[in-house]
Amino acid sequence: MTMAKVDDKGLRLSLKNNEVSNVYFVYGNEEYLKRTSVDLLLTKFADAGKDSFDFKKFDGKDTRLDDVLAAVESFPFMSEYSCILVTDFPFESLSDSEFTQLKETLNDMPQSSVLIFWQFSETTGKTKNQNAVIKIVEKVGTAVECNTKTPAEIKKILGAGIIKRGCTVSESTLNYIIEVVGDDLYLLLSETEKLTAYCAGGEVTRQAVDKLCSKSIDSNAFDVTKALVAGNSDKAFAALNELFVLREEPLKILGAIVMTYTDMYRVKVAVQQTGSYALLGETFACYKGKEFRLRNAAKNASSLSLEQLRKALEELNRADELLKTSKMDGNLVIEELIVRLLMI
């Protein structure tokens, strides 16, 4: 039996070496990697999750702890293990006695059972009881933390997938795909499937990306900002309308626009003080592997003064307060913000 905290690669390796645990806890902010990790576990312990007497699946939100623990104690009929999958279990709703009962079970798991906790929703991963359970699983089983990959790792995954489908792609195009789509692996792999089907054995190009790929909210926000800096109201509102069509929340739209203006302000200050923005990549972790944000910010900020950027940040702060404290329609707040930014 293994006892560890691993990532998706570590899980794959341990299963390949037949190093198994009786309890697993899969969590983190990368949905695709969590899903594939659970699929690996179900393939190993539950015939890929097919219906059987020895596989039970619970939605934690609608399940009593007693039912889960009873399933854990059940002996397998036709398989090596009884496999129990529990998604998004609400650990914080447990009473003190129930939580004690859970901890006792985890510390004394039947060798014939495999219990898998899958925290599908990232927001459920920041609770006191859940963190305590993760610590226990690290000691008696395997905790699988699946977080966003680095840009280099993402490029490697995307490039391998594109080549596997018979196409070629340059590193600059891989960078551009991430810049446009974002770093969510599930979305990225879905988009590369479209690209390889369209390119049909040829090279995946930037033109194909522009034609086929759905832009992330950050990418659309950059288009809004780029149009604002150029004073092009038509393009600014066209890019904004794309976000409205996607039904993005006004606060998320604002946050993405704030990010682009913050990038420009930091670059502008750095260039004025040191003559270069290179050190920003080392100072702020958010730019690690995403240097394109600094390059884009440098281009946009070149036509703006520091005073103009300060005024823009004031307008962004004003919009943030309106969204959080007033009853004004959120989309109207964003539209008014665009007008005020165009006037700076």
SSE order and pairing:
Elements: E1 4-6, H1 8-16, E2 23-27, H2 31-45, E3 55-59, H3 65-73, E4 82-87, H4 96-106, E5 113-118, H5 128-140, E6 142-145, H6 151-164, E7 168-169, H7 171-181, H8 185-199, E8 203-204, H9 206-212, H10 217-230, H11 233-245, H12 250-274, H13 280-283, H14 291-301, H15 306-325, H16 330-342
Parallel strand pairs: 1-6, 2-5, 2-6, 3-4, 4-5, 7-8
Helix pairs in contact: 1-2, 6-7, 6-8, 10-11, 10-12, 11-16, 12-14, 12-15, 12-16, 15-16
Could you explain how this protein is built, in words?
This protein has 344 residues and is α/β, with parallel strands linked by helices. The protein folds into 3 domains: 142 residues, 3-Layer(aba) Sandwich (Rossmann fold); 62 residues, Helicase, Ruva Protein, domain 3; 126 residues, Zinc Finger, Delta Prime, domain 3 (Up-down Bundle). 59% of the residues lie in helices and 10% in strands. The chain has 16 helices and 8 strands. Strands 1-6-2-5-4-3 form a 6-stranded parallel β-sheet, with helices on both faces. Strand 4, helix 4 and strand 5 form a beta-alpha-beta unit. Helix 10 packs across helix 12 and helix 15 packs antiparallel against helix 16. The chain starts with a strand and ends with a helix.
**The CATH top-level class label of the largest domain:** Alpha Beta
State the domain count. Answer: 3
Which strand order do you get reading across the main beta sheet?
A: 1-6-2-5-4-3
Beta-strand segment tally: 8
Radius of gyration (Å): 24 Å
Oligomer: single chain
Question: Uncertain segments of ≥5 residues (pLDDT<50)?
Answer: none
Proper CATH architecture of the largest domain: 3-Layer(aba) Sandwich
**CATH homologous superfamily classification of the largest domain:** P-loop containing nucleotide triphosphate hydrolases
Quick one: overall form?
globular
